[in-house]
Each structure stands twice: as structure tokens, then as C-alpha cells.
Amino acid sequence: MKRQPKISLEGTFVQNLSFKRKHSDEPILETKIAISPYVNFDEEQDKKYMVMFDGKFENSLFDLSLQFVTIFSTEETIDEEFKTSELVRVNSLAIAFPFVRSFISTFSINAGIPPFILPAYNFSEKE
Question: Which of 3, 16, 26, 62 lies most in the core, judged by the most C-beta atoms within 10 Å?
Fold first, then answer.
């Protein structure tokens, strides 16, 4: 059985962010959530890859869209087998997602609105 390569989270950052507060007296009934995770490999970086989340969130109080990036590094050179592995397709997303959740909840509090916390997500079910 082949050993899974070790991965390390190197950092996170927000690539894009758009926020609009709405001045509405309507109660917050439901937040529309659209979040798309994907993995990006740069051919010039043979031991690094990015997990990205494009998200749009809308309710009666705010509209928020963002692109959140997490950078991972590996011990070994990335090959095609690694790119399609469960480590990348499931585990990397699961490792990165709490950072997105934390950013959004902290941002919402600092924006002066009630904390918005993304629900947990099981990436293995998406498979």
C-alpha cells in the first residue's frame, strides 16, 4: 500500500470580497448559501496547490460574496495520481473549510451584523 504524501497548510487569504449591508426591517428568515470549492494546481509550483472557495451569501440583512484561498504544500512532487487522490478531493477541502467559516463569522461580527456561521459541510458526501 502506497503511503499518502504529507501535506501542510501554508496560509490563507481572501482574494476577493464584496459586502453590502441592507437596511431592512424584515426578519432574517433564511440565508441563501452558494459555495463552490475547487482545487487549483499551478504547473510552475510542483509542490504547492491551492484550495479555493467561491461563496455567495444573501439574506434580508446583507449580501456577501468572496473568494477564499488556502495554500497547501507537499513533501513530494505533485503528480496526476496525487491530483485525483482523496487527500486532495476530500481531505484538503475539509481542512480548509473551517478557515472560511471562521473568516465569515468574524467578518460579520466586525461588520456590525449578527454573527453569520456557515453550517458544517461533509465533503466526502459530495463525492
Answer: 62
Phi (first) and psi of residue 50, to 5 degrees: -120, 140
H-state helical runs in the chain: 80-83, 86, 93-110, 123-126
Task: Provide the whole-model pTM.
Answer: 0.88
- CA 98, chain centre distance (Å): 8
Q: What is the pLDDT of residues 66-122, one digit of tens each?
A: 999 999 999 889 999 999 998 898 999 999 999 999 999 999 999 998 889 999 888
Residue 126: name the closest of 8, 12, 36, 31 by CA.
36
Q: Which amino acid is at 14?
A: V
**Residue 79 pairs with which residues in a beta bridge?**
none
- Using CA atoms in the order 84, 85, 91, 95, what is the torsion angle rounded to 10 degrees? -60
Q: 74: which strand partners? A: 7
Q: What CA–CA distance (Å, rounded) separates 21 from 59?
A: 10
